[in-house]
Amino acid sequence: MKRPNRIRTNEPEQETAIVEEAEPVIELKKKEPTGSPIDSLFTSDFFSKENVSNGLPFIFYLAMLGMFYIANHHFAEKSVRNSEKIKKELKELYWEHLNISSNLMTQSKQTEVAKLTEIFGLKESVVPPTKIEVKE
Asked: Residue 111 and residue 116: Cα distance in Å, rounded?
């Protein structure tokens, strides 16, 4: 039988007779709740050095996940702002296109073309066009 580790003293060890005894009955005592649950959290070994060091990788994982979430949110907001800016610019270009095409339609009317060509000395013909037939 091995002896448990003991601090050595100068006193001589006494041999004790091994007496078999019945197994002692272990009584479980219920802990009385004292104070608030937060107090019991800080007084227990929940924040022991070992528990904290075991939980650090998970805490770093959560921190990195939070930073990724924040960065993703900023990127999404930037994309939405850029999209809105492009939509606004597209709408302005569409209205500019409509304005230019409407001006072109009014300037390509026969009366408008006649007014613009009078500057160069050209006049609108008053004789209706005739059909030229060629006999073979």
From this structure: 9
Residue 53 or 6, more confident? 53
Q: 3-state class of 133 per DSSP? A: coil
**Residue 19 scores a pLDDT above 70:** no
C-alpha gyration radius of the chain? 49
**Can you give the pLDDT at residue 84?**
98
CA dist 77 and 71 (Å) reads: 10
Torsion, Cα of 50, 51, 54, 57 (10° steps): -130
- Answer yes or no: are the C-beta atoms of 92 and 86 closer than 8 Å: no
**Tokens encoding 3:** 């002896």
Predicted confidence (pLDDT) per residue in 73-128, tens digit: 999 999 999 999 999 999 999 999 999 999 999 999 988 998 889 999 888 888 99
121 within 8 A of 111, measured Cβ to Cβ: no
pTM for the model: 0.47
* pLDDT, mean over the chain: 83
**Residue 95 in contact with residue 88, Cβ under 8 Å?**
no
